[in-house]
Amino acid sequence: MPSDSRPVARPEDVERWLAELELTPGSRIERNGVSAWDLELDGRRRLDLPVTVILDPTLGLICWVHFAPPLGDMLRRAYRKLLRWNDEFPFVKFSLAEDGRPTLAAELGATGLDRDVLGTALVRLLGVSDRLLEESAEWLWLGGRIPADLAMRTRRNVGLVERYAQRLGELFES
To answer: Which of 7, 9, 77, 111 could form a disulfide with 13 if both were Cys (CB 3.0 to 4.6 A apart)?
Structure first.
C-alpha cells in the first residue's frame, strides 16, 4: 500500500472512469476487498472480446481477457505461440487459465492509475487481439475460418478505440 495508507483507487473511481469512457460494465462483484467488472468490447477487427477489470485498491488494477476457448490437445503448439506473443507484445501477458483457456492481461501498477491509464490498457488489449486475429482464428471458430460477416458488424466502443489508438500506434498501423 502507498506510504500514506490510502487506496490507489476505489471501486467508485473505476466505475466513473468506465462511464467517462462510455463503457457499460456488468454489476460490480466484490470479494475480500477486491472488485471486478465484466465488459464486452470490440476492436477494429476482433469483436465480442470478454474483458474483466479487477481492482485491488491497495495494489493496482488488472484488465484480463478470455482470449479464446480452452485449447484441448493443441497445447504444445499453443504454448509456443503464447510464449512468442509474450515476447512480441510488451506490456501485456498471455497465459493459460486453469481450464486451459488462453488469457491476455494488462497489469497496471498503483502509481498514476486513472481513466486514461485504464482506457489505454483496454485499447492495448483490443489492438493486440486485432493484430492476432488470423493467428488465433483456429481457436475461435470452427475450421479456423473468420466469419465473412465480421467486417460488416456494428462495433461497440468505437470512441474508446479512436481515443487511445494514437498512443499505441505500433498496434494500429495498417
So the answer is: 9
